[in-house]
Design goal:
Number of strands: 0
Order of helices and strands: HHHHHH
Helix content: over 70%
Strand content: under 5%
Largest sheet: none
Oligomer: single chain
Shape: elongated
Radius of gyration: 24 Å
Structural class: mainly alpha
């Protein structure tokens, strides 16, 4: 797949040979190119949501942050044991103010 991509980049003159070859040789760039290609295939073949999820699954920072959601929920439950979540505020509507 990456060879075909490289050939397309060169044929379309999006980048000089040396630039795309350098990118494909660099492990970080190569990884990012693979991720972007996968996401674009998912965008085109499945849905934009699937492509977005593909990006998120490979995002190390996103994955690290997700590990803290359980901890945050536990802390919220300890802080507000009556409803196991943050306090909810009542919104007044125009109809409420008329009564």
């Amino acid at each position: 797949m990456l060879k075909d991509f490289r050939d397309r980049v060169v044929a379309a003159k999006w980048l000089p040979d040396a630039d795309i070859d350098a990118a494909l040789t660099d492990p970080n760039d190569r990884r990012e190119i693979r991720i972007a290609l996968r996401a674009e295939v998912l965008n085109s073949g499945v849905s934009l949501t699937a492509g977005y999820k593909g990006f998120l699954e490979s995002d190390e920072q996103e994955q690290a942050a997700l590990k803290y959601f359980d901890e945050a929920a536990k802390l919220a439950a300890r802080a507000h044991p009556a409803n196991a979540g943050p306090p909810k505020t009542a919104m007044r509507t125009t109809a409420d103010s008329r009564s």
